[in-house]
TrEMBL record:
Domain of life: Bacteria
Pfam family, one: HxlR
Name of this protein: HTH hxlR-type domain-containing protein
Metal-binding keyword on record: no
PROSITE patterns in alphabetical order: HTH_HXLR
SUPFAM superfamilies referenced in this protein's UniProt entry, alphabetically: Winged helix' DNA-binding domain
The UniProt record lists the keyword Mitochondrion: no
Source species of the chain: Lactobacillus intestinalis DSM 6629
InterPro entries linked to this entry: HTH_HxlR, WH-like_DNA-bd_sf, WH_DNA-bd_sf
Domain annotation HTH hxlR-type: ranges: 1-57
Alphabetic keyword roster: DNA-binding, Transcription, Transcription regulation
Length: 57
């Protein structure tokens, strides 16, 4: 399931994938410039989640 979601993010150009030819193989993921534009949205979602958790403790 995780690999499917990562593939979708890669197809949407949100992340970039680098595969290193090592044994065992190593894969690295980075946010693209488009993916980085989501940072403010994610930070706002984190704030909302923190407030929600405080209300429901």
């Amino acid at each position: 399931m995780l690999s499917l979601q990562l593939k979708e993010l890669e197809n949407d150009q949100i992340i970039a994938k680098t595969i290193f030819p090592t044994v065992p193989p190593k894969t690295s993921y980075q946010l693209t410039s488009l993916g980085k534009t989501l940072t403010p949205l994610i930070l706002e979602m984190e704030k909302w989640g923190n407030k929600y958790n405080q209300l429901h403790e």
